[in-house]
Design a protein that fits this description.
The protein is mostly helical. Helix content is about 80%, strand content about 0%.
């Protein structure tokens, strides 16, 4: 069961990141808002399955990763459920829009950045638990650990006010930055899926 949950969560991660990249290029806001909801759910499943493989020596790192994953998912579900419901379905005044509408890069955007910062922390700590048995595991471990470097930027940049002076989340620079993140995170979902798949095949010999 642990392996199946891990495989499903990893596939959901890979698929939703791919769809996010496509919908972002197509400028379909509902599409990329909607898939982020399932990205959060799949991420929690993936991290939980990786934690289940840990040993007593890595238990603290695994539990830390799970807590941060839950915090990330909570914030992201709030942000994108709000976009898919209140923002897209109701006529909001200018003041309410500046608070709730993600495209204004205000309160909701800042919560989103905090959420993805927590996601980065989660990947770093769960990366510490990965037991490398082959090259795929090594790649997965490195990708997870390095992804943790996104945390400082996600935490500090909103505090500088840089986003409030930008042209919005749909700016060319913002789209490019998000597409680069997708190119980085997509292999995490793919290598995690291969990791869980191989756990069930009995292939533990290093490649």
């Amino acid at each position: 069961m642990n392996r199946k949950i891990g495989m499903i969560g990893s596939l959901v991660n890979a698929f939703t990141v791919l769809m996010f990249a496509v919908f972002l290029l197509a400028d379909w806001s509902f599409g990329y808002f909607f898939v982020c909801i399932f990205l959060a759910l799949g991420f929690v499943c993936m991290v939980s399955a990786l934690d289940a493989e840990g040993t007593d020596r890595t238990k603290a790192a695994g539990r830390t990763a799970l807590v941060f994953a839950g915090m990330y998912a909570t914030l992201i579900l709030i942000v994108y459920f709000t976009q898919c419901t209140t923002v897209l379905n109701e006529k909001l005044g200018e003041e309410a829009s500046r608070i709730l509408d993600y495209s204004y890069m205000g309160y909701m955007f800042n919560l989103d950045m905090l959420g993805y910062g927590l996601m980065a922390l989660s990947t770093f700590f769960i990366g510490l638990t990965v037991n490398v048995k082959n090259k795929k595991d090594k790649v997965l471990k490195i990708l997870l650990l390095v992804h943790g470097l996104f945390f400082p930027g996600c935490l500090i940049m909103p505090m500088t006010g840089i986003f409030t002076r930008s042209n919005g989340s749909g700016s060319k620079g913002g789209v490019i930055a998000l597409e680069i993140w997708c190119l980085y995170f997509l292999p995490i979902g793919i290598t995690a899926f291969l990791h869980f798949k191989e756990q069930g095949s009995g292939q533990t010999k290093a490649e």
